[in-house]
Amino acid sequence: MPHGQPSRSSLSPYLLQHAHNPVDWFPWGEEALAKARAEDKPIFLSIGYSACHWCHVMERESFENEAVAKLLNAHFVPIKVDREERPDLDDLYMDAVQTLTGQGGWPMSVWLTPELQPFYGGTYFPPEARRGMPGFIPLLERIAHLWQEQRVDVLGQAVELTDELQRQVQVKAGRELPDGSLFEGALAQLRQAFDPRWGGFSPAPKFPQQMACELVLRRGTSEDQRLALRTLDAMWEGGMFDHVGGGFARYSVDVKWLVPHFEKMLYDNAQLATCYLLAYQATKDANHARIASETLDYLLEQMQDPAGGIHSSEDADSEGEEGRFYAFTAGEIMEALGHADGARFCDLFGITPEGNFEHGQSVVHRFSRPAGITAEPGEERALLERVKAWRSRRVRPHKDDKVLAAWNGLALSAFARGYQVLGDRRYLDAAQGITAFIQRELWRNGVLLRVFRRGEAHTPGFLEDYAAVAGGLVDLFEADFDPRWLDLARDLAEGMRAAFEDRVEGGFYSTGEGQADLLFRQKPGFDNAMPSGNTLAAVALLRLARHLDRPDFRASAEGILRCFGPWMKRAPRAFLGMLNALDLALSEELDIVIAGAPEETDAQGLLRAVHEQFLPNRLLSCAEESALPLHNGRGKVGGRAAAFVCRNHACDAPQTSQDALRARLSAFRTAQKNSLP
Question: Which of 169, 195, 227 is the last residue of a domain?
């Protein structure tokens, strides 16, 4: 069998990156699993993704190493998995690695029995022992020896670990809907963890904090909200935001948000754009609107697939070097702008002769400019555009151009909300384009597929795919008010309930029943870089229940919240996204119905009055005539578009004036904040 041949047939950019390794990689599938059973060999499972810097390092050091390849090919069945294509496998075996080692990450390296039970694991391994890390070559030799000579012990450890993993994922469901006391527990933990100097709620490395900030904006005091706003401002001021080209990197390696891990992920940027939009509504700070806009513009300029979806990620590395595309020496800035403008740029954006990164390079940022240095209106943008044009001559980092349903659901939400709040038609076009793409390429006979790349779609969708797309469609409906989007969201919700719901204990499994290549099903609740599938499902179902008058959808959403209630009480910071869903479930319902055609001038004015308000739990519908339940008995007033503000199914007198509607909604938000438990 030619080296790497099984990986060459894959659509995954990650697997294709490894197709020419001397390791005989197999993709996860029956061929590889049958080979392990037939030859009685353990599986070496390597899980990563194409934008992963340390995955590239391990490939160069170990998987391109002939001695490593010889051991892997002789004693194991080596399988390579793209974690973004199979999040179920990634979650399960990441739990195994964390149980074994106390930590996790990518590349993930796990050894399995032919029956798929894990018995040893870790993350990155250098070829030989280094800085306290075991060497990959002696480790492979040791595991091969144990498999041959101490098989009983290895299998016993595999059974024990599998039993422990199953015990860990057993959710002892709560019976009551959690109450508002959970919010104070989470807020207290966030207050305690807050970094008053640099913002954020953790030590380095610092990851994006969108779910924490959203919860604080929803439920926190005025003092708490300053913590969220300081964090959002600090994330932008540092190098994690690409000030030249827009978009956020994956995380900051230091406490200052200065030096990022340069890869850019769609799921981060979609969520962060939405969070900055919420902050803009809450504060009216135009800079928050600008950050959201520049993030969405980055996705449009660099990540949009010709078919209409949004690509997954951009790498941290280019030309074999992390950050090479993004960092500058002072001399390079002078070359790009000339001496006078270059010196000005260096002052404004922290570029120094000694550098703040590697090899005398600096990461562009805003927080260390000398005292008294300020920019004239438009000056920063003009300089940044010139540097952007100069930077465009560099080799751009590799892009993972596959399109994932769940991540595109988040992008759909971000673009739809971007249009609502900012009024930029390009964002509505993008949201409608994503939806058309999903309908055309990923929605097949009532089944949602997860992955698309270069004309081919595959892999049945997981819980997070159905839930994120359904939630995005609700946001799109509240942007253009086309009832087809609620119809499609309803179909996705019904398919999600049929395939994944635990009708006995509540909550949803990440996968459907009867999946032969999975040890057991998991019920995801913890919110990590993305909201969990159950969090996404709860939000989508709660909103659809109100738009469509579907109490069965609300019952399923409340089943999620009851199921994970005891866990949320024990570890609230692990459920920040689900706490935002709980806020939606517990808060006084606010439904805003505008009777009038959305394209009419008077209706547009009323819509602007709604969109400028921070009302994170409100529902919005607009139509001159509609069969939707919210519109029943509500029409224009004196031939003019009218807004009906309904609280817990009781409506105020209709408003035809923007100013009156604005005042009414502002008063509602003030009263709601004062009544929070």
Answer: 169
